[in-house]
Amino acid sequence: MYPLSKQLHGLCRTSLSCFSHLIDRCLRSKSPNFAKSIHAKLIKVGLISNTFLGNRCLDLYARFGTTDDLLRAFDEIPGKNLVSWNVCLKGLLKLGELSGARKLFDEMPQRDVVSWNSMISGYSSAGLVGSSMDMFLEMQKAGTRPSEFTYSILVSLVSCADHGKQIHGNMVINKVNSLGLVLGNSLIDMYGKLDLLDSAVAVFIRMEEVDIISWNSLILAFHYSTHSLSALEQLRSMMQQGYSPDEFTLSLATTICSNLQDVEKGKQVFALCMKSGFLSNSIVSSAAIDMFSKCDRLEHSIQLFEEVGKWDIKICNSMISSYISHGFSEVGLQLFVRVLRTGLGPTCFTISSLLGAVFVLPSDQGSEIHSLAVKLGFESDIVVVSSLIEMYNRFGLVDSAEKIFLEMSVRDLITWNTIIVGLARYGRAEEALKLFRILIDTGLSPDRITVFGVLEACFHGGFLDQGMYIFSSMKEKHGVSPGEEHYNCIIKLLVRCGKLEESVDLAQRMPYVPSYETLHLILSACIAQSHGDLGLVKMIAEALMTVEPKLVLLLPYRVLLKEYERRGRWEEMVRVGKLMKESETKKAVGSSWIGIRTRMFTFRADQLQHHGGRDLYSILRLLNWNLEGGHN
Questions:
Q1: Three-state SS at 266
Q2: pTM over cut 0.90
Q3: Nearest partner of 448 among 403, 424, 493, 482, judged by Cα
Q4: Where are the PPR repeats (predicted)?
Q5: I need a surface site. Which of 47, 106, 159, 436 has the fewest CB within 10 A?
Q6: How far apart are CA 536 and CA 526, in angstroms?
């Protein structure tokens, strides 16, 4: 007989092994009820006080339990160790309890790199990039050395070249192997997204070993830097060195051919997809459909779509988008209805594509798609919401667009740009400027579209001082170099505010050719304010005729004729009249459209542009005859 103490020790070891086996089974089954059953048995046999088993039970609730279950199990462990705190912390973050996790983190008696990484990752998942970076700084102040996982999280958050280089330098200082596969690939991806191609290539060359992910990241870096042909050359080099492309490589190469709109190179990549056996992959097939569509080979897209053995929502999304981009919006909507009938669930991309189509369809269909987005739970998706705002802006329903924007919990720069440009377009200048100031306060950096929207708002509102300040400081304050659209906008603002000389001077100094609209405004202002400055009128009129010689330019010709006639310069009048005839300018025909039920009818000033137009004219003639008394 063994002593009682040895018997108990053996029983305890048997129980530990038994419960560990049960917990492993529970992890495989992912059953919350099973987890509660194991927890109850631990309490019943008095083993809940065992820290090892308590931590394993805690891990069950962290994976698929509730917050209450997790915290109750945590409280029942009398001898909590660092593992207990870390497991509970991860569980709270996984359950979305960010504030509760931070409170627990602050209460921890000690922390290791796992604790800090959990909080950095938690803030990152919640979109709180600033908080993640602040937590990293606190980690360093606390004396905890970052791990490779720490840096892999940070490099995915970087949006500024300086920050990226600082983090890379920090890796070197902390003697973290930045040239291993995980961090090396992350750095290539980071530098690629920051458009620092040379740095991405340097990391790739210095890496101890590379894999297919390394090559994909490098090809993507060339793609981000708009070196599309070089990106395809990297694909060739990769294959020459014995690496086989995967579905991501081929879908990326297909997308590059789409952007190049090079159908011949696209066909070569398509052949490689077939040879590699990846054409059955929905990501590759959908990229191929997009490529043929963007290369103006819609018939090839349709053929590929029809030859696909099994429908997938990604493939259907590409085909719907292809139809819409080629002007077949009704066909795209019909395909969407077929998709719904097959039971495939639409994605955010599906809804976004459809919202882009409703501009050429009745506006009530846009409202129907909006309702569907809400029903599907996409009303908080940032891509769908941006598309909704753009759709309502297009229809002039700015209040609806603004209401959606203000209800958003998370906004990206595209969303801000969409609402600012929409408000500016419809004369809501003060609101657009107010949102711009709020955008700056959030810490987001505006881009060229943001600044253009704000300058448009200043133009429509006549805010000269604000417009000039924003224009003159956009490079220094926001890192945005003035483009052609910014110059044209500020010149229009100067003209509107009566600053004709300044507008002409800026138009002559700008590094771009002024747009037709800008020159038109200057010319109109010259006629009203120049007091007989024929040289200026002639210069602007001739510039207009140079910018758009094929468009309707009767205005500059007529202005010159009027000015020459007023001064009695008959020879010049004859010359301009001859130029008018030689130019064979044609009057532009205005058009308008109206949606009735599910049909869109387009009207031109000189004819009716839809099937059945002749019948309508016959009815109109009959009604006219009736009104004139023809029935008598």
A1: helix
A2: no
A3: 482
A4: 81-111, 112-146, 312-346, 412-446
A5: 106
A6: 7
Is 223:257 a contact under the CB 8 Å cutoff? no
Rg (CA), the chain: 33
- What backbone phi and psi angles, to 5 degrees, belong to 601? -115, 130
Q: At what angle do helices 113-125 and 129-141 cross, to 10 degrees?
A: 170
d(CA 37, CA 32): 9
Residue 628, classified by CB atoms within 10 Å of its CB into exposed (0-12), middle (13-18) or buried (19+), is: exposed
Hey, what amino acid is at 440? Answer: I
3-state secondary structure 268-329: HHHHHHHHHCCCCCHHHHHHHHHHHHHCCCHHHHHHHHHHCCCCCHHHHHHHHHHHHHCCCH
Once rounded to an integer, what is the mean pLDDT over residues 350-379?
76
Tokens of 258: 């789409």
Distance (Å, whole) CA 263 – CA 303? 15
Question: Long-range CB contacts (< 8 A, 24+ apart) of 67-76?
Answer: 67/92, 67/95, 67/97, 67/100, 69/32, 69/35, 69/36, 70/95, 73/39, 76/43, 76/48
Residues of the chain with CATH 1.25.40: 516-583
Q: Whose structure tokens read 């070569």? A: 268
Environment class of 540 (CB within 10 Å of its CB; exposed 0-12, middle 13-18, buried 19+): buried
How far apart CA 361 and CA 148 sit, in angstroms, is: 52
Q: How many CB atoms lie within 10 A of CB 172?
A: 9
Can you say whether the dihedral through the CA atoms of 607, 612, 618, 619 is positive or negative?
A: negative
Better-scored residue on pLDDT, 631 or 152:
152
What percent of the chain has pLDDT above 90? 29
Q: Which residue do the tokens 């599910």 mark?
A: 598
Q: Distance between CA 512 and CA 579 in Å, rounded?
A: 26
What is the distance between the alpha carbons of residues 396 and 394, in angstroms, rounded to a whole number? Answer: 5
pLDDT at residue 44 is higher than 80: no
- Rounded Cα–Cα distance for residues 415 and 208 (Å): 42
Burial group, residue 286, by CB count within 10 angstroms (0-12, 13-18, 19+):
buried
Whether residue 88 contacts residue 62, with contact meaning beta carbons closer than 8 Å, is answered with yes
For residues 247, 251, 257 and 260, what is the CA-based torsion angle, rounded to 10 degrees? Answer: -140
Strand-pairing partners, residue 595, are 600
Task: Assign domain 516-583 to a CATH class.
Answer: mainly alpha
Amino acid in position 360: V
Task: Tokens 């929905």: give the residue.
Answer: 282
> 17-31, 57-71, 363-377: which range is least confident on average?
17-31
